[in-house]
Amino acid sequence: MSGPASLSEPVFPPLVMNPELVKGILIGFIRNEVRKVGFERVVLGLSGGVDSSLVATLAAEALGPQNVLAMIMPAKTSDPISRSDALQVVQQLGMHHLEIDISPQIDAYFARFPDADQRRRGNKLARERMTILYDQSFAWQGLVIGTSNKTELLLGYGTIYGDLASAINPIGDLYKTQVWQLADAVGVPTAIVQKAPSADLWAGQSDETELGFQYRMVDQLLYYLVDRRYSVKELKGLGFEEAFISDIVRRVRDNQYKRRLPVIAKLSSRTIDREFRYPRDWGH
Amino acid sequence: MNPEGRLTVGLAQIDPVLGDRDRNLEAHREWVDQAAAAGANLLVFPELSLTGYFLKDLVPDSAIRLDDPVMKELSALSTDLDVVLGAVIEDPDHRYFNSSLYFSGGELVHLHRKVYLPTYGMFDEQRYFAPGDRFRSFKTRFGRTGLLVCEDIWHLSSAYILSLEGVDLIICPSSSPGRGITTDERLGTAESYRLICRTYAQFLTTFFLYCNRVGFEDGANFWGGSMVIAPNGDVIAEQQDADEALVVASLDLAQVRRERLANPLLRDERLELTINELRRVSHERTRKPF
Prior knowledge:
Chain A has helices at 19-35, 50-63, 80-93, 103-110, 118-140, 150-155, 176-186, 190-194, 207-211, 215-227, 232-237, 242-254, and strands at 41-45, 68-72, 96-99, 142-144.
């Protein structure tokens, strides 16, 4: 079930891309969106997984490794392989890094809530890392660069105001299947590309086990559902199981809130984000 | 124009600052100087070159009225060479238009208000702009010319109307965001525009200038790809990269005549037939019961 990405396995044809073209756009995106708001640097959480390793690689190429700070933030529940993979990426790219064991602050908090379950503790880890990233963002004068991919964003497989928080996100429009392709093409170590994806919030966690399906499968469905706007009937016609379709449709719908700003109670005639509409890049 | 019937055109493939008209005007001056130094007689800037594209509620703040003093500064850009630029024009009745302006000899020669305002997918122009209501060609020192802004060219009738007015040159300033990643060398958008622009040039036997911008706004990339196309459909000059660039090409204006002799599509076009058939289609539409 965990089905690591085999680089020799054929990729679903509509999600095959020209990595050089995509890399060029994403490097341009990082340079442009960072520099025009007056920054030269970025900071990111580097887990040792494929998403953050890809973003680190793109950022190092866009801004120079001296302008990228990789934060490695293991907890005692983290797989030691994650840390060593992250360090390998740091070394390969020659970027700055800072390692902070977040267990003491997590443990101090949960000492008051010893019954907290795994999911609650996992979300806390993700948000703890976020507060550290934003603090380092201020100290290092670098924008927080996000590492959530399109599959995670659509499924809501992330912690709101945790790993979903960032200033700019270069890979949010790439499905996991595409992240693997691009990571391989830009030189992310093969062991990182091929290992089973994990949020690593607790020992032995596996994305695909937890989600209940393989990324390769769900990416195909999401492509038809989201990008091509196939109806449920048409999706069934393509051979997807009805239960799988309805599970994914529900996940996408139920997690819409994670992709939006908080709901504001409308009172005036010009409410933020309703009638008050300005580009994020206003004046840049 | 050069004495031997040639026109040197420049396409300023620029990256405007979003919502900062003063900085963009200053940049326009620099590009005009650069184009003049390169020997250009005509310089084309992209759609909304003075303001940037995804303006949203910045549209009214970015607008210029035709009696605004800044119009003199825009006109002054065209002292040495003709200039096409993009701006938000506010009419006296306070409607805002996504406009393309043609200046020559220090004067405004023509103003085209974008007719087809994309309001689908990533676009929301009709929320902020009023649509233009005409396609009109105009005379320049290089021949009869027509302006179409970006989405205008996705409607066959726009270029067709200009063609029947006998244009030698169609100019299309654009702010086209790139999308569509496949195994191809270029984005899907780039391929589509290249096909459309070449088709118009060849079908309508006119020169076609396409000037697209570059840069990023709110994460959307503009793919550049500015190109100069001859009346036989050949791409004479092209900037495939999404970098700022001045694309320069020398046009042999007599090529229009030769192309229309070899390929008299315009001569054989049946304007009356087309009008009659369109009138019939329109009439039949009104007779539908519901």
